[in-house]
Amino acid sequence: MPATPPPALYPYLSAHHELLWNEADAFVAEHIAPRVVRMEAAPGRVERKVADLMAARGWFAVTVPSAFGGLGAGHVAKTVLIHRISCVSAAAAAILQATLIPVGALLHFATQEQKGRWLPGVADGSLLLTIAVTEPGAGGHIGGIETIAERTGNHWVLTGSKIHIGNSHLAGSHLVLARTAEVGVRTSRALTAFMVEHDRPGLSVADHRPGLGLHGFSAGRLDLEHVRVPVDNVVGEIGQGLSVAQSSSILYGRPNLAAVSLGIHEAVVATTTSYLKARPRYRSALSDLPVLRDRVGDMEARLRAARILAYQSVHLLDQGLSCDAELINAKYLGHQWAMTSTQDAMELHGAHALDRGYLLQRLWRDIQHTHPPAGTGEVQRIRLADAAFDEDDVQWSERLATETAWSQPGPTAA
Ligand SMILES: Cc1cc2nc3c(=O)[nH]c(=O)nc-3n(C[C@H](O)[C@H](O)[C@H](O)COP(=O)(O)OP(=O)(O)OC[C@H]3O[C@@H](n4cnc5c(N)ncnc54)[C@H](O)[C@@H]3O)c2cc1C
After folding, report:
1. CA 349–ligand 1 middle distance (angstroms)
2. CATH number, position 71
3. Atom of ligand 1 nearest to the CA of 133
4. Tell me: the pLDDT tens digits for 64-114?
């Protein structure tokens, strides 16, 4: 794996980003790498310690504006952190990225008072967040959300269930999407976002059930039974929930998942080349067989292209340029290419890939987890087809990016 940023990324990286890259690698080597084996061996445990270490190091502050105690460092800086952490532990990277999606929603939709209430906690690492959209009957189809919120005096009362919620077991507050209009009202006006603190009566988090991969990360179920939240916990306008969810998913979720996939992809290629070089064959090694080199060449081509997509798209976002389709594409192809390379790697390892506890199995299991979040492949292709037909009318990058602190980076921003 590249110890320093590959030259192809330099158009998108400043000297501050390069510094951050090195800091992230050093942090990962010292704090995360030694814990990975234990995380894998105990899938039933949620890895709070790694979250605490990342919080103490200030990584959750990366996109929080400096006015609220954060680094205000922007999307490229965020990608550097998620990517470099994911090279060693996609689960740890998932913990980081899951909080940074609702941070994005707050940046664009919360009032100044709300930002002052929640963002300093994220910046100092004392408050992790979730964004809770998915339900048992509503994943890719956000219009199917059944959680309801009803107004009573100065409160809203929420009832419903959310599933697959990243950081469910670590978060102090959940940004919950609920229906605030009667059936029949268009989804674009029927949903509203609410910040729900984890200790509100009626909110419960189901026991952690480990998934196929990302061991240590929690993506669990929240049940809301008549949970009362004050009216000033509404984030954005009443009826603006779809915009909150869609913009966060496109501007933050897609690039975050692209960075997680990229880290896994780096590890897959590095593991495979090391293995092929070390495995004797005839008077040399497997790495000298042309037919295997051809396959590795394909893996390397995909990895190099995925790096460019991941970094170019967030660079455009930092510049305040229109880039929704680039963000979508980075997530879509980043996952797909990493999946293909991981399958190639499994086969290139022969039976060794199947030996219990071998690293490649973790990478294979983890990469399955970057397909559904922030939109499955089908959802991405629907959006990309809209772009091809020039029918992608809402450009969240155009509408919102220029509002953020880093769209005009100052001398102290990364
Ligand atoms: C690791 C992980 C973390 C997650 N984190 C969060 C989180 O923090 N917050 C949150 O709210 N959710 C989260 N999710 C849930 C994720 O957003 C959903 O899984 C995703 O939106 C897909 O929904 P679904 O699983 O219900 O699949 P479905 O929407 O039921 O889709 C099933 C299949 O049908 C296809 N499909 C669906 N609709 C269409 C269509 N219109 N046209 C063509 N094909 C279609 C899909 O591509 C898929 O192949 C997470 C999931 C994972 C795995």
Report:
1. 31
2. 1.10.540.10
3. 11
4. 999 999 999 999 999 999 999 999 999 999 999 999 999 999 999 999 999
**pLDDT tens digits, 362-382:** 999 999 999 999 999 999 999
Q: Is the CB of 255 under 6 A from ligand 1?
A: no
Tens-digit pLDDT profile for residues 17-53: 999 999 999 999 999 999 999 999 999 999 999 999 9
- 207-221 tens-digit pLDDT: 999 999 999 999 999
- The dihedral sign for the CA sequence 132, 137, 142, 144: negative
Q: Which of 239, 254, 287 is the last residue of a domain?
A: 239
Q: Which atom of ligand 1 is nearest to the CA of 379?
A: 47
376 in contact with ligand 1, CB cutoff 6 A: yes
In a domain, 1, yes or no: no
210 lines ligand 1 (CB under 6 A): no
The residue type of 319 is: Q
Chain mean pLDDT for the chain: 94
CATH classification at residue 217: 2.40.110.10
State in Å: Cα 23 to ligand 1 middle. Answer: 34
Angle, in degrees to the nearest 10, between helices 48-57 and 90-109: 60
Q: Count the alpha carbons within 13 Å of 198 in the hemisphere toward its beta carbon.
A: 15
First to last CA, the chain: 23
Distance between Cα 378 and ligand 1 center (Å): 10
Pair (173, 275) in one structural domain: no
Q: Tell whether 212 and 137 lie within a shared domain.
A: yes
Q: What atom in ligand 1 is closest to the CA of residue 166?
A: 8
**413 is a domain residue:** no
Give residues with Cβ within 8 angstroms of 159, minimum separation 6: 147, 148, 224, 225, 226, 227
Query: How far is residue 240 from each of residues 180, 187, 246, 356, 395, measured CA to CA in Å?
Result: 10, 9, 10, 48, 16
User: Of 210, 239, 268, which residue constitutes the final position of a domain?
Assistant: 239
The answer to whether 257 and 335 have CB atoms below 8 angstroms apart is: yes
Question: Per-residue pLDDT for 406 more than 70?
Answer: no
**146: domain range?**
130-239
Q: Does the beta carbon of 105 lie inside 6 Å of ligand 1?
A: no
Q: Please report the atom of ligand 1 found closest to the CA of residue 168.
A: 8
Q: Are residues 273 and 388 in the same domain?
A: yes
Q: By mean pLDDT, which of 223-227, 240-244, 263-267, 393-397 is the weakest?
A: 393-397
d(CA 3, ligand 1 centre) in Å = 34
Domains in the chain, number: 3
